[in-house]
Each structure stands twice: as structure tokens, then as C-alpha cells.
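Protein chain data
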Amino acid sequence: MPEDELSRSSHGNPGKGLVNGIKTNPASNSPKSSLSVPLGPPVYVDLAYIPNHCSGKNTDPEFFKRVRASYYVVSGNDAANGEPSRAVLDALLEGKSQWGENLQVTLIPTHDTEVTREWYQQTHEKQQELNIMVLASSSTVVMQDESFPACKIEF
């Protein structure tokens, strides 16, 4: 394609065929299945926020295979929208089982939900096997006229 034609096609409809800046297959209606993210080494971080309030729409086992964190924050508190998603919590177990190293991982739920409680109870043995700790805290922070649950994290 000539340079001027390439320039027009990329400027004529900016963002077309891109999802989060990644080129997608225009024939597919599902951005998740059409992302062409190159494989690479995993990324190690101290703290990672599980995307989209721990919704299954954007997070799968591949996220946990590639983003390896000492701490994962789960902020979902909307059962009607599947947040947090049991499938995402299960994906953490699946992804962590592929690490090949038994690094300590701490899961920090920001809300006490039925989904996280059930997942914790039903998968407790697997969590121990994978060296995953779920941080529970009954601490409350009071700011002005508002109070909310909180956890202290030290690095």
C-alpha cells in the first residue's frame, strides 16, 4: 500500500480496528477473542488491581499467568453485574498454578461478599497449596461523616 494511502486509511477513521490500542480482527464482534497480544515473559509487580471490579468480562487465567503480583486487590461489590466474578477468582488459582514457583500471593478483597466468602471456603485447600492468602480485615476508617472497611498493606 502506498504511503499516502496508508496515511489516509489510518487517519480517516482513527481507532477503527483497535481495542485498547491493540489491532483487532474486524470480522470478529468479540474484542476479547480477537486481541493479538504478543506473548512475552511474565511481569512481576508488588500490587495489582484486578481489572473492571473483578468482572469476568476482562480477566481470565491468562491475566494471572502474565501479571504476577504479591498482592491482588479485588474491589467488586455488585452481585447483579457479577462483580466480583467467581470465574475470575478461579482464574487466579488456575493462573497461579502455572507459575512454576511458589511465591506468596495475598488477595485483598475490599468488600465482604457472598461470592468471595464461598470461593474462600470451597477452595481453601487449593489456596494453601498455591501459597495464596486471603486478607481479611475488620478495620474501619472513619473520614468526616463516612466510614468504610480498610486494610493496611506493608511492603
